[in-house]
Design a protein that fits this description.
- With 113 residues, the chain is of the alpha+beta class.
- The N and C termini lie far apart (40 Å).
- It has helices at 10-27, 29-48, 100-105; strands at 5-8, 54-56, 66-71, 74-84, 87-95.
- The chain has one domain: YaeB-like fold, CATH 3.30.2310.20.
- The protein has a five-stranded mixed beta sheet with strand order 1-5-4-3-2.
Amino acid sequence: MSAGRIEKRSPAYQDLRRHAVYLAVEAGAPVATRFLECAEKAFSTLASAPTMGRVRRFPHAEVGELRSWAIPNFERYLIFYRALPGGIEVIRVLHGMRDLDRIFGSKTGDEGG
């Protein structure tokens, strides 16, 4: 099974960096590296089968239909993505305890801090 294309929005890159820094400080650099590797592997898996994630609906969301998928071995971190022809667009990578309705329900998509 070949992976499809993977597009990442800027907030997704920022999310990955922020989570990796946090994990490096809290658990060590090897854990942060493993997190990034697991995230990239999950992106590839999703790009080859974009409809496998759970459809998510958020009030007032202007981002369209989103799907989510937990990063294997880091299940508290969720990939939010949109299926594209031939792949996926990664919108955000967020910890599942965040106020997701607020993040995706705002007009700007900004969680405000």
